[in-house]
Amino acid sequence: MESTTHQDTSVNTKNSRWLISLLAIGILLGIGFRFFEIDRKVYWHDEAYTSIRAAGFTSEEIHYELFQNRIFPAPELQKYQRIKPGSTAADTIRSLALDPKHPPLYFLMARVWMQQFGSSLTASRSLPALLSLLSLPLMYALAQELFASNLAALLATALLALSPIDILLAQTARQYSLLTVAVIGSSWLLLRAVRLRAWQNWACYSLAVAIGFYTHPFFGLTLIGHGVFIISYWLFVNKRELRGNLTTSKFFLAITAGLVLYSPWIYVMATNLDRASARAAWTRVSPGWLYILRMWLLSFTALFFDIESSSKNIWIYLLRLPFLLLIAVAIYQICRRTSISTWVFIVTSIFVPFLLLALPDLILGGQRSAVSRYLISCFPGVQLAVAYLLACYLKTQQRFWQVILALVFTASIASCTVSAFSDTWWSKDLSYFNAEVAKIINKEAIANRSIKDTIVISDRGNDFTNMGDLLSLSYLLDKDVRLMLMSQSPEIEMLNKYSAPLVFRPSEKLISALKQNQRRLEPILESARLFRARRAS
After folding, report:
1. Given CB 3.0 to 4.6 Å as the disulfide criterion, which of 356, 392, 462, 492 pairs with 513?
2. Among the listed residues 107, 53, 106, the one whose alpha carbon sits nearest the alpha carbon of residue 81
3. How far is CA 320 from CA 302, 312, 502, in A?
4. What element of type H or E holds 181?
5. Cα–Cα dist 168/129, whole Å
6. What does the pLDDT look like over 311-354, one tens digit per residue?
7. What is the Cβ-side half-sphere exposure of residue 290, based on CA atoms within 13 angstroms?
8. CA distance 332 to 335
9. CA dihedral for 226, 375, 106, 94, sign (positive or negative)
Protein backbone atom coordinates (compact mmCIF):
# COMPACT_ATOMS: atom_id res chain seq x y z
CA MET A 1 0.00 0.00 0.00
CA GLU A 2 2.88 2.40 0.65
CA SER A 3 4.41 4.25 -2.30
CA THR A 4 8.02 3.71 -3.27
CA THR A 5 9.10 7.01 -1.65
CA HIS A 6 11.30 5.14 0.81
CA GLN A 7 13.03 2.64 -1.47
CA ASP A 8 16.21 0.87 -0.44
CA THR A 9 18.38 2.42 -3.17
CA SER A 10 20.26 4.76 -0.82
CA VAL A 11 21.83 1.90 1.07
CA ASN A 12 25.26 1.29 -0.36
CA THR A 13 26.10 -2.19 -1.59
CA LYS A 14 28.53 -3.06 1.22
CA ASN A 15 26.23 -2.03 4.04
CA SER A 16 23.26 -3.61 2.30
CA ARG A 17 25.02 -6.98 2.12
CA TRP A 18 26.09 -6.73 5.74
CA LEU A 19 22.57 -5.87 6.83
CA ILE A 20 20.88 -8.59 4.79
CA SER A 21 23.36 -11.14 6.15
CA LEU A 22 22.68 -9.99 9.70
CA LEU A 23 18.92 -10.24 9.19
CA ALA A 24 19.21 -13.69 7.60
CA ILE A 25 21.29 -14.89 10.57
CA GLY A 26 18.72 -13.41 12.95
CA ILE A 27 15.88 -15.23 11.21
CA LEU A 28 17.79 -18.54 11.29
CA LEU A 29 18.60 -18.04 14.98
CA GLY A 30 14.94 -17.35 15.70
CA ILE A 31 13.95 -20.57 13.95
CA GLY A 32 16.55 -22.47 15.96
CA PHE A 33 15.40 -20.98 19.27
CA ARG A 34 11.88 -22.28 18.61
CA PHE A 35 13.17 -25.86 18.83
CA PHE A 36 16.17 -25.52 21.16
CA GLU A 37 15.55 -27.04 24.62
CA ILE A 38 11.89 -27.32 23.65
CA ASP A 39 11.18 -29.83 26.43
CA ARG A 40 13.07 -28.04 29.20
CA LYS A 41 10.44 -25.75 30.68
CA VAL A 42 7.68 -27.10 32.88
CA TYR A 43 4.64 -28.40 30.96
CA TRP A 44 2.26 -26.04 32.64
CA HIS A 45 -1.39 -26.21 33.70
CA ASP A 46 -2.90 -25.00 30.39
CA GLU A 47 -0.69 -27.28 28.32
CA ALA A 48 -1.86 -30.24 30.40
CA TYR A 49 -5.43 -29.26 29.54
CA THR A 50 -4.49 -29.14 25.85
CA SER A 51 -3.39 -32.78 26.10
CA ILE A 52 -6.53 -33.72 28.06
CA ARG A 53 -8.84 -32.37 25.39
CA ALA A 54 -6.81 -33.53 22.40
CA ALA A 55 -6.74 -37.01 23.97
CA GLY A 56 -10.54 -37.07 24.23
CA PHE A 57 -10.94 -36.80 28.02
CA THR A 58 -13.11 -34.32 29.87
CA SER A 59 -11.94 -32.60 33.02
CA GLU A 60 -15.08 -33.82 34.81
CA GLU A 61 -14.32 -37.50 34.24
CA ILE A 62 -10.71 -37.06 35.37
CA HIS A 63 -11.83 -35.22 38.50
CA TYR A 64 -14.25 -38.05 39.22
CA GLU A 65 -11.59 -40.74 38.77
CA LEU A 66 -8.76 -39.03 40.63
CA PHE A 67 -10.21 -37.25 43.65
CA GLN A 68 -11.75 -40.23 45.43
CA ASN A 69 -9.58 -40.59 48.57
CA ARG A 70 -7.14 -42.83 46.71
CA ILE A 71 -3.38 -43.13 46.30
CA PHE A 72 -1.78 -43.10 42.85
CA PRO A 73 1.83 -43.40 41.68
CA ALA A 74 2.58 -39.97 40.21
CA PRO A 75 3.43 -41.29 36.71
CA GLU A 76 -0.01 -42.95 36.51
CA LEU A 77 -1.55 -39.54 35.87
CA GLN A 78 0.22 -39.54 32.52
CA LYS A 79 -2.49 -41.78 31.07
CA TYR A 80 -4.72 -38.68 30.90
CA GLN A 81 -2.15 -37.03 28.65
CA ARG A 82 -2.29 -39.81 26.04
CA ILE A 83 -5.03 -40.71 23.55
CA LYS A 84 -8.02 -42.11 25.43
CA PRO A 85 -8.55 -45.76 24.39
CA GLY A 86 -11.51 -46.07 22.03
CA SER A 87 -11.92 -42.32 21.62
CA THR A 88 -12.30 -40.42 18.35
CA ALA A 89 -12.07 -36.82 17.19
CA ALA A 90 -15.72 -36.49 18.23
CA ASP A 91 -14.63 -37.00 21.86
CA THR A 92 -12.17 -34.13 21.52
CA ILE A 93 -14.96 -31.90 20.22
CA ARG A 94 -17.32 -32.99 23.03
CA SER A 95 -14.64 -32.21 25.61
CA LEU A 96 -14.18 -28.74 24.14
CA ALA A 97 -17.93 -28.14 23.91
CA LEU A 98 -18.03 -28.29 27.72
CA ASP A 99 -15.60 -25.34 27.78
CA PRO A 100 -16.45 -23.66 24.44
CA LYS A 101 -14.18 -20.65 24.80
CA HIS A 102 -11.61 -22.88 23.07
CA PRO A 103 -12.65 -23.71 19.48
CA PRO A 104 -11.59 -27.10 18.09
CA LEU A 105 -9.14 -26.40 15.23
CA TYR A 106 -5.85 -26.53 17.15
CA PHE A 107 -6.99 -29.34 19.44
CA LEU A 108 -7.98 -31.54 16.51
CA MET A 109 -4.58 -30.85 14.94
CA ALA A 110 -2.95 -31.73 18.28
CA ARG A 111 -4.91 -34.99 18.41
CA VAL A 112 -3.71 -36.05 14.96
CA TRP A 113 -0.18 -35.01 15.92
CA MET A 114 -0.41 -37.04 19.14
CA GLN A 115 -1.59 -40.11 17.22
CA GLN A 116 1.38 -39.84 14.87
CA PHE A 117 4.20 -38.74 17.19
CA GLY A 118 3.13 -39.56 20.74
CA SER A 119 2.52 -37.39 23.77
CA SER A 120 6.01 -36.53 25.01
CA LEU A 121 6.83 -32.92 25.83
CA THR A 122 8.95 -32.66 22.69
CA ALA A 123 6.18 -34.06 20.49
CA SER A 124 3.44 -31.90 22.02
CA ARG A 125 5.44 -28.70 21.69
CA SER A 126 6.83 -29.42 18.21
CA LEU A 127 3.42 -28.78 16.64
CA PRO A 128 3.07 -25.13 17.79
CA ALA A 129 6.77 -24.55 17.06
CA LEU A 130 6.28 -25.73 13.47
CA LEU A 131 3.08 -23.72 13.10
CA SER A 132 4.91 -20.62 14.28
CA LEU A 133 7.24 -20.86 11.28
CA LEU A 134 4.29 -20.08 9.00
CA SER A 135 4.11 -16.60 10.51
CA LEU A 136 7.56 -15.64 9.18
CA PRO A 137 6.84 -15.60 5.41
CA LEU A 138 3.42 -14.12 6.16
CA MET A 139 5.03 -11.28 8.11
CA TYR A 140 7.39 -10.64 5.18
CA ALA A 141 4.43 -10.51 2.78
CA LEU A 142 2.43 -8.23 5.10
CA ALA A 143 5.33 -5.78 5.49
CA GLN A 144 5.87 -5.75 1.72
CA GLU A 145 2.19 -5.01 1.21
CA LEU A 146 2.37 -2.10 3.65
CA PHE A 147 5.75 -0.55 2.92
CA ALA A 148 6.86 -1.85 -0.53
CA SER A 149 10.34 -2.20 0.97
CA ASN A 150 12.47 -5.36 1.05
CA LEU A 151 14.49 -3.96 3.95
CA ALA A 152 11.43 -3.21 6.10
CA ALA A 153 9.98 -6.63 5.28
CA LEU A 154 13.20 -8.42 6.25
CA LEU A 155 13.46 -6.39 9.45
CA ALA A 156 9.86 -7.20 10.42
CA THR A 157 10.48 -10.90 9.75
CA ALA A 158 13.69 -10.89 11.78
CA LEU A 159 12.04 -9.06 14.69
CA LEU A 160 9.24 -11.65 14.73
CA ALA A 161 11.70 -14.54 14.43
CA LEU A 162 13.76 -13.33 17.41
CA SER A 163 10.86 -12.04 19.50
CA PRO A 164 11.24 -13.58 22.98
CA ILE A 165 7.50 -13.68 23.63
CA ASP A 166 6.75 -15.21 20.23
CA ILE A 167 9.34 -17.91 20.91
CA LEU A 168 7.76 -18.58 24.32
CA LEU A 169 4.37 -18.99 22.64
CA ALA A 170 5.90 -21.19 19.93
CA GLN A 171 7.20 -23.53 22.64
CA THR A 172 3.84 -23.72 24.39
CA ALA A 173 1.42 -26.53 23.53
CA ARG A 174 -1.49 -24.15 23.03
CA GLN A 175 -3.11 -22.49 20.04
CA TYR A 176 -1.33 -19.15 20.40
CA SER A 177 1.28 -19.62 17.67
CA LEU A 178 -1.54 -20.60 15.29
CA LEU A 179 -3.43 -17.47 16.38
CA THR A 180 -0.36 -15.37 15.48
CA VAL A 181 -0.38 -16.99 12.03
CA ALA A 182 -4.10 -16.21 11.66
CA VAL A 183 -3.66 -12.57 12.74
CA ILE A 184 -0.77 -11.89 10.36
CA GLY A 185 -2.16 -13.96 7.49
CA SER A 186 -5.63 -12.41 7.63
CA SER A 187 -4.12 -8.91 7.74
CA TRP A 188 -2.07 -9.61 4.62
CA LEU A 189 -5.07 -11.08 2.80
CA LEU A 190 -7.19 -8.06 3.77
CA LEU A 191 -4.68 -5.59 2.35
CA ARG A 192 -4.35 -7.62 -0.84
CA ALA A 193 -8.13 -7.73 -1.20
CA VAL A 194 -8.35 -3.95 -0.73
CA ARG A 195 -5.62 -3.37 -3.32
CA LEU A 196 -6.62 -5.96 -5.93
CA ARG A 197 -10.41 -5.77 -5.36
CA ALA A 198 -10.99 -9.22 -6.87
CA TRP A 199 -13.67 -11.47 -5.38
CA GLN A 200 -11.27 -14.39 -5.04
CA ASN A 201 -9.07 -12.29 -2.74
CA TRP A 202 -12.06 -11.49 -0.56
CA ALA A 203 -12.95 -15.21 -0.52
CA CYS A 204 -9.45 -16.01 0.76
CA TYR A 205 -9.85 -13.35 3.45
CA SER A 206 -13.23 -14.82 4.43
CA LEU A 207 -11.62 -18.25 4.83
CA ALA A 208 -8.84 -16.71 6.95
CA VAL A 209 -11.50 -15.14 9.20
CA ALA A 210 -13.11 -18.54 9.75
CA ILE A 211 -9.72 -20.14 10.50
CA GLY A 212 -8.92 -17.33 12.95
CA PHE A 213 -12.18 -17.81 14.84
CA TYR A 214 -11.79 -21.60 14.88
CA THR A 215 -8.37 -20.98 16.44
CA HIS A 216 -9.38 -18.62 19.25
CA PRO A 217 -12.36 -16.30 19.92
CA PHE A 218 -9.91 -13.44 20.58
CA PHE A 219 -9.28 -13.38 16.84
CA GLY A 220 -12.38 -11.17 17.03
CA LEU A 221 -10.12 -8.41 18.39
CA THR A 222 -8.18 -8.46 15.12
CA LEU A 223 -11.38 -8.54 13.11
CA ILE A 224 -12.76 -5.46 14.87
CA GLY A 225 -9.45 -3.73 14.18
CA HIS A 226 -9.84 -4.64 10.51
CA GLY A 227 -13.36 -3.21 10.58
CA VAL A 228 -12.18 0.10 12.04
CA PHE A 229 -9.45 0.24 9.39
CA ILE A 230 -11.89 -0.39 6.53
CA ILE A 231 -14.33 2.26 7.79
CA SER A 232 -11.45 4.72 8.25
CA TYR A 233 -10.16 3.84 4.78
CA TRP A 234 -13.58 4.63 3.36
CA LEU A 235 -13.92 7.89 5.33
CA PHE A 236 -10.44 9.32 4.73
CA VAL A 237 -9.21 7.76 1.49
CA ASN A 238 -11.97 6.68 -0.89
CA LYS A 239 -15.21 8.18 0.42
CA ARG A 240 -15.96 9.96 -2.83
CA GLU A 241 -15.17 6.98 -5.03
CA LEU A 242 -17.41 4.07 -5.90
CA ARG A 243 -14.36 1.89 -5.19
CA GLY A 244 -14.45 2.86 -1.50
CA ASN A 245 -18.10 1.86 -1.17
CA LEU A 246 -17.45 -1.44 -2.96
CA THR A 247 -14.47 -2.17 -0.68
CA THR A 248 -16.59 -1.63 2.42
CA SER A 249 -19.42 -3.78 1.06
CA LYS A 250 -17.07 -6.60 0.08
CA PHE A 251 -15.42 -6.48 3.51
CA PHE A 252 -18.68 -6.93 5.36
CA LEU A 253 -19.80 -9.66 2.96
CA ALA A 254 -16.51 -11.48 3.57
CA ILE A 255 -16.96 -11.15 7.34
CA THR A 256 -20.49 -12.48 7.07
CA ALA A 257 -19.29 -15.47 5.06
CA GLY A 258 -16.54 -16.15 7.61
CA LEU A 259 -19.04 -16.02 10.48
CA VAL A 260 -21.38 -18.38 8.61
CA LEU A 261 -18.51 -20.88 8.39
CA TYR A 262 -17.94 -20.39 12.14
CA SER A 263 -21.65 -20.62 13.01
CA PRO A 264 -21.55 -24.26 14.23
CA TRP A 265 -19.19 -23.24 17.03
CA ILE A 266 -21.17 -20.04 17.68
CA TYR A 267 -24.11 -22.34 18.41
CA VAL A 268 -21.96 -24.46 20.75
CA MET A 269 -20.80 -21.34 22.59
CA ALA A 270 -24.34 -19.97 22.86
CA THR A 271 -25.67 -23.22 24.36
CA ASN A 272 -22.83 -23.34 26.92
CA LEU A 273 -22.43 -19.63 27.56
CA ASP A 274 -22.87 -19.83 31.34
CA ARG A 275 -20.15 -22.46 31.66
CA ALA A 276 -17.75 -20.50 29.42
CA SER A 277 -18.43 -17.34 31.44
CA ALA A 278 -17.81 -19.17 34.72
CA ARG A 279 -14.48 -20.55 33.45
CA ALA A 280 -13.39 -17.03 32.51
CA ALA A 281 -14.48 -15.49 35.83
CA TRP A 282 -10.85 -15.05 36.94
CA THR A 283 -10.33 -12.41 34.21
CA ARG A 284 -12.95 -10.23 35.91
CA VAL A 285 -11.04 -10.15 39.21
CA SER A 286 -9.14 -6.88 39.49
CA PRO A 287 -5.53 -7.30 40.70
CA GLY A 288 -4.91 -3.56 41.04
CA TRP A 289 -3.59 -1.02 38.59
CA LEU A 290 0.05 -1.38 39.58
CA TYR A 291 -0.05 -5.03 38.51
CA ILE A 292 -1.87 -4.22 35.26
CA LEU A 293 0.60 -1.46 34.33
CA ARG A 294 3.49 -3.80 35.10
CA MET A 295 2.02 -6.47 32.82
CA TRP A 296 1.44 -3.95 30.01
CA LEU A 297 5.10 -2.96 30.22
CA LEU A 298 6.19 -6.59 30.35
CA SER A 299 3.96 -7.76 27.50
CA PHE A 300 4.87 -5.13 24.91
CA THR A 301 8.58 -4.94 25.69
CA ALA A 302 8.84 -8.76 25.72
CA LEU A 303 8.59 -8.48 21.93
CA PHE A 304 12.25 -7.41 22.07
CA PHE A 305 13.61 -7.99 25.58
CA ASP A 306 12.51 -10.45 28.23
CA ILE A 307 14.86 -11.23 31.06
CA GLU A 308 12.94 -13.04 33.84
CA SER A 309 10.30 -10.71 35.24
CA SER A 310 8.92 -12.47 38.30
CA SER A 311 11.34 -10.50 40.44
CA LYS A 312 10.19 -7.26 42.04
CA ASN A 313 13.60 -5.72 41.39
CA ILE A 314 12.89 -2.28 39.92
CA TRP A 315 15.92 -2.52 37.61
CA ILE A 316 14.28 -5.39 35.72
CA TYR A 317 11.54 -2.96 34.69
CA LEU A 318 13.74 0.09 34.15
CA LEU A 319 15.72 -1.92 31.59
CA ARG A 320 12.52 -2.30 29.60
CA LEU A 321 11.79 1.42 29.34
CA PRO A 322 14.13 2.07 26.36
CA PHE A 323 12.19 -0.56 24.40
CA LEU A 324 8.92 1.13 25.32
CA LEU A 325 10.42 4.40 24.04
CA LEU A 326 11.47 2.66 20.82
CA ILE A 327 7.88 1.48 20.29
CA ALA A 328 6.49 4.98 20.94
CA VAL A 329 8.96 6.61 18.50
CA ALA A 330 8.17 3.94 15.89
CA ILE A 331 4.41 4.58 16.08
CA TYR A 332 5.00 8.33 15.88
CA GLN A 333 7.18 7.94 12.77
CA ILE A 334 4.64 5.63 11.14
CA CYS A 335 1.97 8.31 11.60
CA ARG A 336 4.26 11.10 10.36
CA ARG A 337 5.96 9.48 7.38
CA THR A 338 3.56 6.98 5.77
CA SER A 339 0.35 7.30 3.79
CA ILE A 340 -2.99 7.53 5.61
CA SER A 341 -3.97 3.99 4.70
CA THR A 342 -0.68 2.57 6.03
CA TRP A 343 -0.56 4.38 9.34
CA VAL A 344 -4.27 3.85 10.00
CA PHE A 345 -3.80 0.11 9.46
CA ILE A 346 -0.83 -0.05 11.87
CA VAL A 347 -2.48 2.11 14.53
CA THR A 348 -5.81 0.24 14.42
CA SER A 349 -4.07 -3.14 14.53
CA ILE A 350 -2.29 -2.14 17.76
CA PHE A 351 -4.73 0.06 19.64
CA VAL A 352 -8.16 -1.32 18.76
CA PRO A 353 -7.46 -4.82 20.22
CA PHE A 354 -5.64 -3.28 23.18
CA LEU A 355 -8.44 -0.84 24.04
CA LEU A 356 -11.10 -3.54 23.66
CA LEU A 357 -9.34 -5.35 26.52
CA ALA A 358 -8.09 -2.38 28.55
CA LEU A 359 -11.28 -0.30 28.65
CA PRO A 360 -13.37 -3.02 30.36
CA ASP A 361 -10.55 -3.35 32.89
CA LEU A 362 -10.70 0.41 33.46
CA ILE A 363 -14.47 0.69 33.65
CA LEU A 364 -15.63 -2.65 35.05
CA GLY A 365 -12.49 -3.96 36.70
CA GLY A 366 -10.60 -7.08 35.73
CA GLN A 367 -7.30 -8.19 34.24
CA ARG A 368 -8.06 -9.04 30.61
CA SER A 369 -5.44 -6.66 29.25
CA ALA A 370 -2.87 -7.91 31.76
CA VAL A 371 -2.79 -11.40 30.19
CA SER A 372 0.04 -11.30 27.66
CA ARG A 373 -1.35 -14.03 25.40
CA TYR A 374 -4.60 -12.07 25.03
CA LEU A 375 -2.61 -9.24 23.42
CA ILE A 376 -1.38 -11.34 20.49
CA SER A 377 -3.52 -9.32 18.08
CA CYS A 378 -1.54 -6.18 18.99
CA PHE A 379 1.97 -7.60 18.61
CA PRO A 380 2.47 -7.76 14.80
CA GLY A 381 1.54 -4.08 14.46
CA VAL A 382 4.22 -3.12 17.00
CA GLN A 383 6.84 -5.22 15.19
CA LEU A 384 5.88 -3.68 11.84
CA ALA A 385 6.16 -0.15 13.25
CA VAL A 386 9.61 -0.78 14.71
CA ALA A 387 10.75 -2.46 11.49
CA TYR A 388 9.67 0.57 9.47
CA LEU A 389 11.44 2.95 11.87
CA LEU A 390 14.70 1.00 11.60
CA ALA A 391 14.40 0.67 7.81
CA CYS A 392 13.94 4.42 7.40
CA TYR A 393 16.83 5.53 9.57
CA LEU A 394 19.29 2.83 8.56
CA LYS A 395 19.32 4.64 5.20
CA THR A 396 19.92 8.17 6.47
CA GLN A 397 21.70 7.87 9.83
CA GLN A 398 23.39 4.54 9.40
CA ARG A 399 25.93 4.44 12.23
CA PHE A 400 23.56 5.38 15.07
CA TRP A 401 20.71 3.16 13.88
CA GLN A 402 23.05 0.26 13.19
CA VAL A 403 23.94 0.45 16.87
CA ILE A 404 20.23 0.54 17.81
CA LEU A 405 19.54 -2.49 15.60
CA ALA A 406 22.50 -4.35 17.08
CA LEU A 407 21.31 -3.57 20.62
CA VAL A 408 17.77 -4.76 19.83
CA PHE A 409 19.04 -8.00 18.32
CA THR A 410 21.50 -8.51 21.19
CA ALA A 411 18.72 -7.99 23.76
CA SER A 412 16.45 -10.46 21.96
CA ILE A 413 19.15 -13.12 21.55
CA ALA A 414 20.27 -12.73 25.18
CA SER A 415 16.66 -13.00 26.36
CA CYS A 416 16.02 -16.12 24.27
CA THR A 417 19.27 -17.73 25.49
CA VAL A 418 18.50 -17.14 29.17
CA SER A 419 14.94 -18.37 28.67
CA ALA A 420 16.09 -21.50 26.79
CA PHE A 421 18.11 -22.71 29.78
CA SER A 422 15.41 -21.96 32.37
CA ASP A 423 13.07 -24.55 33.88
CA THR A 424 10.27 -22.03 34.22
CA TRP A 425 9.29 -18.53 33.09
CA TRP A 426 6.74 -15.88 33.98
CA SER A 427 4.48 -17.17 31.17
CA LYS A 428 3.91 -20.41 33.12
CA ASP A 429 1.50 -18.51 35.36
CA LEU A 430 -0.18 -20.96 37.80
CA SER A 431 2.60 -23.50 37.29
CA TYR A 432 5.54 -21.11 37.72
CA PHE A 433 6.88 -22.91 40.80
CA ASN A 434 6.13 -26.47 39.69
CA ALA A 435 9.71 -27.23 38.65
CA GLU A 436 10.96 -26.21 42.10
CA VAL A 437 8.15 -28.14 43.80
CA ALA A 438 9.09 -31.27 41.85
CA LYS A 439 12.76 -30.92 42.82
CA ILE A 440 11.85 -30.72 46.51
CA ILE A 441 9.54 -33.72 46.31
CA ASN A 442 12.00 -35.80 44.27
CA LYS A 443 14.82 -35.00 46.69
CA GLU A 444 12.70 -36.37 49.50
CA ALA A 445 11.76 -39.43 47.42
CA ILE A 446 15.43 -40.24 46.85
CA ALA A 447 16.18 -39.85 50.55
CA ASN A 448 13.23 -42.09 51.55
CA ARG A 449 13.56 -44.69 48.77
CA SER A 450 14.84 -47.52 50.95
CA ILE A 451 12.58 -46.69 53.92
CA LYS A 452 9.12 -45.60 52.83
CA ASP A 453 7.05 -44.08 50.06
CA THR A 454 6.98 -40.32 49.62
CA ILE A 455 3.36 -39.20 49.92
CA VAL A 456 2.02 -35.92 48.56
CA ILE A 457 -1.53 -35.04 49.62
CA SER A 458 -3.74 -32.81 47.49
CA ASP A 459 -7.33 -32.27 46.39
CA ARG A 460 -9.17 -30.22 43.79
CA GLY A 461 -8.20 -26.95 45.48
CA ASN A 462 -10.29 -23.93 46.35
CA ASP A 463 -10.68 -22.92 42.70
CA PHE A 464 -10.62 -26.44 41.19
CA THR A 465 -7.31 -25.75 39.37
CA ASN A 466 -5.17 -28.37 41.13
CA MET A 467 -5.81 -31.09 38.57
CA GLY A 468 -3.93 -29.24 35.83
CA ASP A 469 -0.94 -28.67 38.06
CA LEU A 470 -0.89 -32.24 39.36
CA LEU A 471 -0.78 -33.39 35.73
CA SER A 472 1.99 -30.84 35.16
CA LEU A 473 3.94 -32.29 38.10
CA SER A 474 3.43 -35.85 36.85
CA TYR A 475 5.92 -35.08 34.05
CA LEU A 476 8.57 -34.21 36.65
CA LEU A 477 7.99 -36.44 39.67
CA ASP A 478 9.98 -39.56 40.49
CA LYS A 479 8.22 -42.92 39.95
CA ASP A 480 8.40 -43.60 43.70
CA VAL A 481 6.28 -40.54 44.57
CA ARG A 482 2.69 -41.36 45.58
CA LEU A 483 -0.18 -38.89 45.32
CA MET A 484 -2.96 -39.11 47.91
CA LEU A 485 -5.83 -37.32 46.18
CA MET A 486 -8.68 -36.49 48.51
CA SER A 487 -12.34 -35.99 47.68
CA GLN A 488 -14.41 -33.06 48.89
CA SER A 489 -15.23 -35.25 51.89
CA PRO A 490 -11.67 -36.31 52.78
CA GLU A 491 -11.14 -39.60 54.63
CA ILE A 492 -8.47 -38.18 56.82
CA GLU A 493 -7.89 -41.51 58.63
CA MET A 494 -5.81 -42.50 55.61
CA LEU A 495 -3.12 -40.19 57.00
CA ASN A 496 -2.65 -42.06 60.25
CA LYS A 497 0.23 -44.25 59.07
CA TYR A 498 2.17 -41.28 57.66
CA SER A 499 4.07 -39.18 60.15
CA ALA A 500 4.85 -36.09 58.06
CA PRO A 501 3.50 -36.23 54.48
CA LEU A 502 3.79 -33.35 52.03
CA VAL A 503 0.70 -31.33 51.14
CA PHE A 504 0.30 -29.48 47.83
CA ARG A 505 -2.19 -26.61 47.47
CA PRO A 506 -4.77 -27.82 49.98
CA SER A 507 -8.30 -26.42 49.86
CA GLU A 508 -9.87 -24.89 52.96
CA LYS A 509 -11.82 -28.14 53.44
CA LEU A 510 -8.65 -30.19 53.39
CA ILE A 511 -6.87 -27.82 55.76
CA SER A 512 -9.80 -28.10 58.17
CA ALA A 513 -9.72 -31.90 57.93
CA LEU A 514 -5.98 -31.94 58.63
CA LYS A 515 -6.49 -29.82 61.73
CA GLN A 516 -9.15 -32.27 62.94
CA ASN A 517 -6.52 -35.00 62.50
CA GLN A 518 -4.23 -33.01 64.81
CA ARG A 519 -1.97 -31.91 61.99
CA ARG A 520 -0.26 -28.56 61.57
CA LEU A 521 0.95 -27.30 58.21
CA GLU A 522 4.62 -26.36 58.10
CA PRO A 523 5.53 -24.28 55.00
CA ILE A 524 8.22 -25.73 52.75
CA LEU A 525 7.74 -23.55 49.68
CA GLU A 526 5.07 -21.06 50.66
CA SER A 527 4.94 -19.29 47.29
CA ALA A 528 3.86 -22.60 45.72
CA ARG A 529 1.72 -23.61 48.74
CA LEU A 530 3.78 -26.73 49.45
CA PHE A 531 3.60 -27.79 53.09
CA ARG A 532 4.48 -30.61 55.43
CA ALA A 533 1.65 -31.94 57.61
CA ARG A 534 3.23 -32.71 60.98
CA ARG A 535 1.43 -34.13 63.96
CA ALA A 536 0.66 -31.40 66.46
CA SER A 537 2.82 -31.76 69.54
Report:
1. 492
2. 53
3. 8, 14, 39
4. helix 176-196
5. 9
6. 567 778 889 999 999 999 999 999 999 999 999 999 999 999 99
7. 2
8. 5
9. negative
